[in-house]
Each structure stands twice: as structure tokens, then as C-alpha cells.
Amino acid sequence: QEDGPRQGREISQAAPQTDDIPVIDLNAYLSTAADGSPSETALAECNKVAECFHRYGIILIRDPRVNMSDNDTYIDLMEEYFADVGDRFYANETISDIKPEFHYQVGATPEFIEKARNHSEKLSALNLAPEDTPESPLEPVLDAKWRFMWKIGERPDGASDDFPAVKPERYPDWEDKMNTWGGKLHSAIFTVAEMAAIGMGVEKSAFTSRMEGGAHLLAPTGSDLVKNDIGAIFAGFHYDISFMTIHGKSRYPGLFVWTRDWKKKAVKIPEGCLLIQSGTSFEHITGGYVLSGFHEVVYTEATKEAVKRRAQQFEALGINRRQWRVSSTMFTHFRNDVDIGPMAELSHLYTPDQAAQYPRMTAFEILMQELSATGMTFDQATHSE
What backbone phi and psi angles, to 5 degrees, belong to 21? Predict the structure, then answer.
């Protein structure tokens, strides 16, 4: 248990921002997708999706089906939940929402459980300029963040990782709010997956047919902005295990991403937009045409300034509320049995030597490999009572 703020070295937000990454409007594609033949405008947007994933590992989208007030409602819920469960956890209450026996793939994960893989060899080989170097320590530390996992969509009968949902007892509208926001993210990312396939020159269902029945997880994170302070690592330098990861706009800065040329950028999501990052399964199945998007989340000076501004707003409104940085993250995955080796249909995007770097394995195999490497698999000896 830690009662006081965790201090760190000064962290600025001097990195260039993501302003140079174009925003992709899904409206042009959605308005002609039902016709079976996207318009020239829609095809141009599909090409932009493929190019942005290739160059940056992230894309910014605007989806007319997504009302950002739903994001606000969802973040309000998660701020309240994380503050409540955190207080009870550190008061030594038993929290039934925490399920290590299910590899933390449902329910709550306390802070200081998740830890990034060690990428010190890669970083040493890259020898990045100071402005492009992660703030995360070379030797990964445990992340100062909570998480909650909630399944979105249907799973195949008998899926070994289709664990029972966890519904916090104190929130009667939990299921409705989680499914409302998760459903919108789910629709957006399936549309983007179709657009990416078209932009890469394959059938629009090339990715979505493999996503059907995947373990898509709404996985919001929460970090206490009172207990923590500048320099705290909310998510160490890492890539995601997923095919794609989608986020709504957070209320506090602190997310940094690395583009294909290893330039560090501070993420700034425009109003009304969503952010999508490429995961390791996307890298594998495209033979490296799309790379896993490395990123980190750090308590910066800009985060601190946002905390001060919001504290003033709360005071003016007479609101007594703890400040938590919530990220409305959702991971999307291929179905467990999908071979994520480089797709033959995409061979025009990679060379045989590049393909050889990605051995054939299933989506479930890489998931468990990555969970094991980050300490997220259940160890019966460690967790037995």
C-alpha cells in the first residue's frame, strides 16, 4: 500500500504531437459500403488507412455513428469505479471483481500487476535521440494503473477463454453503459478493418472474417492522479497483443507513440475522433508491412496542468471528486484458431525474408505467449490461498 504521492523526475511534453497524422472520415466509406463498390472518395480513404498504419502504426478516425457524449458517460462511470474500488482495495477489503484465475482477462486488475516486456536490447540497438527516448525505465517497472476487462461481442461455443463476465454489484447500469460504448468502438474498428483490407489490395472481409468470434475486450485503464505525481509510469514502453486497439479521447494527456521511423509523438486526439493503434497480430499477418505500435503513458507536466485546471473547475462547481486518468481502451483480436502467419494474399507487401521473421502460430498461441511474458497468466502456486 502506498499512501503518498509517488514523485519522479521532471517529465515534459516537448515531443512533437500527432497533428501531422491525417484524420480519416468513415462517412464516405459507410455511405457507399452497402452498394458493394466503394466510391473513389471512399477508396482514397481506404488507401489512407493502409498508408497511415504502415507509416505511423496509428490512425485517427471520425465515425458519424459515434456520439462522444457516450464516451463522457463511460469515462464518468470508470472514474467513479476506479476511485471506489481503489479505496476499498487499500482498506484491505476483498474485491470479488479481481480474477487472477482467469489471467485478469475479465474483471478488475489492480495497479502494479501489469508490466511491459523488456525491450532494452531493441532500444540499445536503436540508440534513439534523447527526444525520441522513452521516459519508461529500460528495466520495466510495474504499471501504476488499474484495468477492467469486459467482453464485447459473441464468442464461439466452447472457447477456452470465454470466462464469465464480472458485473460490479454497486453499478446497476454497468452492463448497459459498457455495452453501449463498447458496441460503438466495435462497429468503428470492424469498419476500419474492412477499409485497411481494401487499402492493402485484398478482399474487404480479409481481416473481419478472422475477427468474428475474437476475444474483443473493452479494457479501460485508471490511474490515480492524486496518489501519483510527475514521472509515474502508467503504462511502460510496449506494444499491444491485439490486432487493433481503439481508444476514445482521454481527459488528461500523457500518451506517447512511436512511428515507424522511431519518432516519438505526444498523442493529441482531435475532438470527436477516435485513435486506433496496430497490435502484434497485425504485424504478423501483414509480414511486417504494419508494425506493432509502440507507446507509453506517463504522468507529465502537461498531465499535472490538466489536473490543476480540472480541480479549479470542480471547486467552482462545488464538486468533490477524485481525479483519475481513464483511457477508454478496447482490444480487438482474431479468433483463437486463426493462423496469424503472413497472409499469402498480402505477399505484395512483404519479401520472403520479411515473412520468415514471423513464424506460423495461432492468435491464441501468441496471446498466451505475450501474457506469460508480461506476468499476466495465472500461477496456481502464487495465487493459491
Answer: -90, 125
For 293-348, the pLDDT digits (tens) are 999 999 999 999 999 999 999 999 998 888 999 999 999 999 999 999 999 999 99
Q: Are 310 and 272 in contact (CB under 8 A)?
A: no
Please give the distance of CA 353 from its chain centroid, rounded to a whole number: 30
In this model, does residue 6 exceed pLDDT 50? no
Q: How many CB atoms lie within 10 A of CB 14?
A: 11
Long-range CB pairs of 359-365 (<8 Å, 24+ gap) are 361/284, 362/336, 362/337, 362/338, 363/210, 363/214, 363/243, 363/281, 363/333, 363/334, 363/335, 363/336, 363/337, 363/338, 364/160, 364/161, 364/336, 364/337
3-class DSSP state of 237: strand
8 A C-beta contact, residue 39 and residue 28? yes
Please state the rounded mean pLDDT for residues 20-49.
Answer: 90
